[in-house]
Amino acid sequence: MANQTVFRLCVLTVAAAVGVIATGPFGGKPHLVASGLLAILLLAVAAMMRHRVAYFSVLLFLVSGGTGRLVKSNPAVAAMHEVIGPVLLSMACFLAVMAWTGTDTEVEDSGRPPLRSLARWAPPVILMQVFLGALYRHAFTGISLHVFGAMLAGALIMFAGISVMILPGIGKALQRVSWALLGVTFLQFFFGIYAYLNRIAAEEAGTVAGVSHIAVSHIVTGGLTMGLSVVLALLVNRYVRPAEAVAA
After folding, report:
1. How far apart (Å, rounded) are the C-alpha atoms in residues 164 and 238?
2. For 50-68, how does the pLDDT look when each residue is reduced to its tens digit (9 = 90+)?
3. Pairing between strand 107-109 and 240-242?
4. CB-side neighbour CA atoms (13 Å) of 81
5. Given 48, 124, 149, 208, which is the most exposed site by the fewest CB atoms within 10 A?
6. HEC sequence for 87-143
7. Residues 152, 122 contacting (CB under 8 angstroms)
8. For 107, phi and psi rounded to 5 degrees?
9. Rounded to the nearest 5°, which phi and psi values hold at 12?
């Protein structure tokens, strides 16, 4: 029962982190409420799990709050601040998997390249892409670097997701996470293209593009993509064993 309670708290923390990311560009009371809820949940999870990742998430949240006042005046801080939300979301996903008491089928990693390697590389590559997106939105880089990162991350996610689907005997939990990751990644690409076209149209019209719901949806799905990649990596590490380990 205690583990189920912790797991539910972690899931609520994930939802609160999504709320913080979604309301961040708009600010105001909704963002304050989402941030306050996230703070309470992070503290509760840290107190119940006593895991170093939980403690670090609380520290990272405090850093985020401390630098929040500099966002409007310092573009570099704003870009870094924009990355903290997806990282907190990913840490909440990590803690949720740690608290999950369910089981899945253990299978052999017979893929080439190995699924374990693909899943292990996905979170850092997506984090890099999230950072490149923040740099582009704050005019530190052009669109080309962001597109290159998107292609690299998208290819890695596609290979990892398909590798899970075709692996013999794979369990339902990994299948569901893979489908969710592929679906959210597709949505992120769609929102990203739409947001870029809106930005180009605004520049051609000589107007300043404000914060659009499409652009925010792109940012939110980016955070979800990173969080789901962490879940996939942890479940693959738990249930997909190297061939020699299964044989032994």
Report:
1. 14
2. 999 999 999 999 988 887 7
3. parallel
4. 21
5. 208
6. HHHHHHHHHHHHHCCCCCCCEEECCCCCHHHHHHHHHHHHHHHHHHHHHHHCCCCCH
7. no
8. -130, 170
9. -65, -35
